[in-house]
């Protein structure tokens, strides 16, 4: 197989990266670095390691069965699919609102367009609807390869220069993370809630994998599917550390703190870089930030209607035909964008509150989806190629137990 053929097989893993590297990285990881320096770097790496088996269940199930995890949920019972639908409807508008408002702030900085943040966010949502509605998976798959490449190169480039030209620190502005501080704990929960991404993405990944298989006419083998996933997963881990490092090197130990306004935050994020590195760095920082968020906007806006369409087809047999297939996608796509637009006007004055709410809700519901993924993978209908080894099964169970423990601890607080 030529290098070009191997690159063409990549897709779902890069879509995963596009969805994961966004609010959790650009906003939350940068905030972690800005407020606590490198103190939470080990936490970010540890959380990525602990959640790995849960996220791997998506590509593993799709490669073993040729079906989505939602089909796996159906083997458990229709109630499992209903749980996913209800959790998605509860969270998707606030999630898409948080993503789009951050993207709008960065777009305003990149282009200089002075529209109000909610108006710009709605325009970006509309543009994304057109891109996804016309191109569907193939356009998203091709575009994401370019976006992830630009993101990675520009981020590493910005980090390199930040290391050589760090901001002067003042001890009075340096904050030590305190495990007994209520505000610090709440921020930690919000940070790890979407680190590296919401658990929903494991389900999205399986849907993207099945779409990739249909597009190319054959099922990607397990080894290739897992390699594609690992490139995306560990790549997002690296980028999370990079954004934390940028926040630490540029913002930590200074009077500046991340703003609650999306436009002001974007101005801080880019302005502090150009102040320390020079105006020449503006295109690299702005490009890294905007491509991060726009890739997240596209992939998440595609994932909700795609998974909810499949859920509808599973739960209501009369919709499971070619006649309703595209109509269902358009219905959920427009509903998701419309709901996000409504939410924007309620939280526009406080971007940080919107982001923290979305990430915290994802943190609380994560154990439910993790358990359903585990049950689907261990169903008798799953071929041996998809079964977990004994050691990996224990790893998976330990990850679930930790998620449950942290969720209960948060609810206790």
Topology, element by element:
Elements: H1 3-9, H2 12-20, H3 23-36, H4 41-65, H5 69-76, H6 78-111, H7 117-164, H8 182-193, H9 200-216, H10 222-250, H11 262-277, H12 282-315, H13 322-347, H14 351-377, H15 390-412
Helix pairs in contact: 2-7, 2-9, 2-10, 2-12, 3-8, 3-10, 4-9, 4-10, 4-14, 4-15, 5-6, 5-14, 6-7, 6-11, 6-12, 6-13, 6-14, 7-10, 7-11, 7-12, 7-13, 8-14, 9-12, 11-12, 12-13, 14-15
How is this structure best described in words?
By secondary structure, the protein is mainly α. It has a single domain (3-412), classed as Amino acid/polyamine transporter I (Up-down Bundle), CATH 1.20.1740.10. The protein is built from 15 helices and no strands. It has helices at residues 3-9, 12-20, 23-36, 41-65, 69-76, 78-111, 117-164, 182-193, 200-216, 222-250, 262-277, 282-315, 322-347, 351-377, 390-412. Helix 3 (23-36) packs parallel to helix 10 (222-250), helix 4 (41-65) crosses helix 14 and helix 12 (282-315) crosses helix 13 (322-347). It is globular, with a radius of gyration of 20 Å. The mean pLDDT is 82.
